[in-house]
Amino acid sequence: MSSSKVAHSMEKRLSDPHGTNAVLNKASSLRELGLTREAVQEYGKLLKTGCHPGKIIPGLVDCLSKTNSPSNLIERIEELIRQYKLDRARLSQIRYYVAMEMEKMGFQDLALDLYRAAAKTDPGNKGVKQKIDQIVSRMAPSSRYDYLLNRGLITQGQLQEALSVAKRVKKSVEFILMKQFRLKKEDIGKSLSLFYGCPFKEFDPEAPVPVELLGNLKKPFLLHDLWVPLSWSKDGVEILIDDPWDLRKTGLIRGLTKTKKINFCVGIREDIQKFISLFFDAKAEKATQDMIAELDLIPDIAFDEGDEEDAGMAEEVDETSSQVVRLVDQVIVTALRKNASDIHIEPSPITNRTTIRFRLDGVCQEYMQVPNSMARGVLSRLKIMAGIDIAERRLPQDGKIKFRRKGIPPLDLRLATLPTAGGHEDAVLRLLASAGALKLDEMGLSERNLNVMKRILVKPYGLILAVGPTGSGKTTTLHSALNHINNPGLKIWTAEDPVEITQPGLRQVEVKPKIGLDFATVMRAFLRADPDVIMIGEMRDNETASIGIEASLTGHLVFSTLHTNNASETITRLLDMGLNPLNFADALLGVLAQRLIRKLCTNCRKKYHPSREEFEALVAEYGEEAFRSRTIKYGPKLILSRPSGCEACSGTGYKGRMAIHELLEGTAAIKRLIKKEAVTEEIFAQGVRDGMTTLKQDGIIKVLSGLTDIAEVRRVCIE
Asked: Structural domains in the chain?
């Protein structure tokens, strides 16, 4: 060999130390001969060398495309990559060039996935990011259903029909498309994924519960906002959401998860709801088991007690068990700390579980579940504490519990038990926490109502009534009125069932019907005990009402309550009970009807400017003619509030309650109508002329003040 040939050979080896050109030429020749399998092997060898991917990938993709679908083709290349354990830069390069080939072949979605994988492997590669932006801009659909429309899977008319049906049945459009129009979930998922640029995730009943992510989240809040955390890894938190472009939700998610590494995936509403129910049912069961373990309750207890026959054979826990004693104490203490008004204990023959619920701000919320095998022991324990017959399970019973434990204030509870289906008993506990009376100015009365109340409270004699359904705050209002006039110069007697609120200066008697100490008996006794002011817990019958009116006409100021719907109806109801209209008219000073509504949570309520239509709807409900006397006008400065949901309010958007009122003053005109035994409508009309606002009107004023929303007012008011 000549010296020039030797030099040329050495130069060639130095420029191509691994012989990649020779392998590349061999692979190209095999591809031209149609020997694709052999060609793929040669191209595969080049992946681990320094050969530029731009020279390898086109030929490799061409060979694989002859025998593989595009998705399988990518899988084959990924298999070759895994064999050689390439560094991140090389891996990103190869994926980038494979993506370019997919793009040329028209598979934009596959190309986008590969570009994103390349960007994840090599985040500093600006060229990859540019490619992603280019494809996204080309692919970006204008609607989340474009993919379905463009492929003829559904028409515009069918989509509009699905939207109409979805609104009517309160389901998602996607659900209607699957059920009524028989679309596949995969196609709907593809459309959502392309629109939002993130993966689609459907419900998986085997999904592990992300307990560490659910710690500070509440089920009602997630169901309202329609998102749920699915998992957590070094790459970040995976969140399933119905709308990944909703900035309010995504901002809230980032704040609650306290991480910037969030990977969103999109899902349909019903699947998200299923995930939430799956996770929280599992979480509730685990929490209950943990609580039982913490209380040293039966460690081998099982929630799944089988069918009815097997469940009946489950070993029951009696009331003397220390585990049951501690569970009952735990429930009562927790209810007190949560400011619950009632505890409901509800065994179910269907689920074989006993649900314990708390009533918070007037709405029941589930606290925990225990097996039915514990229910009888829990009920017997409560009966022993209340001093009622432990053996009687066929009839309703009621009693009172004095609960005294270290670390909490003394607490009285009223227990009511009722026999229910399946041979079980329900129990309801009303918490009667001792509390002082509120000041009259703190009762939320409007300016007119407050002035009228202060005027009639200083009268030397007469009758003042507080009316409304059970749990509407009537007793609280009367004690506030008593507090306003309470001074050493007055002798104030009260008869209550039970005594819930105490204050200095009051002499309070608790009625006990079982021994004949009813309201009428106590009232007659009061008249012999030199009273100035008398409060009678409730006018349940003609005798009590008659004695109350006689007391008010003989120089005593009398307060009482009645279960009626509004102020004007109260007068008709008392007349129907057989009261003397003349005496009643002379005695009446005023009737205050009230309801309790939930206040918007001040921590998370959202302020907004209502539309003119929304404002006009409020005006129509208030009464257009009556609203003209108000100074509130529609304009850019008009701001209302709506519920949102946060940890402080357990995701409900509401925290605390306030009263709305309807005060009918016993004016001369009203007294004349009572003497004539006028109908309710006439009394109501005269009350309005005297300045009375209805319950709903008072509620709407509080809505316009941003304290609550119209949904709460409608919940407790009919008209």
From this structure: 11-139 (1.25.40), 198-290 (3.30.300.160), 295-433 (3.30.450.90), 440-598+657-693 (3.40.50.300)
